Amino acid sequence: MKTFKVLGTGCKNCENTAALIEARARETGVDVTVEKVTDMAQIMAYGVMSTPGVVLDGKLLHAGGVPSPEKIAEWLAS
Fold this sequence. Notes:
The protein is built from 3 helices and 4 strands. Strands 2-1-3-4 form a 4-stranded mixed β-sheet. β3 and β4 form a beta hairpin. Helix content is 41%, strand content 27%. The chain has a single domain, classed as Glutaredoxin, CATH 3.40.30.10. The radius of gyration is 11 Å and the shape is globular. The chain is α+β, with helices and mostly antiparallel strands. α1 (12-28) crosses α3 (69-77).
């Protein structure tokens, strides 16, 4: 199982990012957990200055803007 954290204040882009990860995981049959992190101290601990940020298994993969479906597919395949 892959564990994703979507870092952000709950804005529309953050919600869309979490939904895209969940949808792509369902399409590809990958078992994931998606946690939404809204606490600014936790977000800043990852060094994220622009949200949404995406963390996979403790590693920051993306910050700022909604990631492309292709990028999400790469994360799921790794």
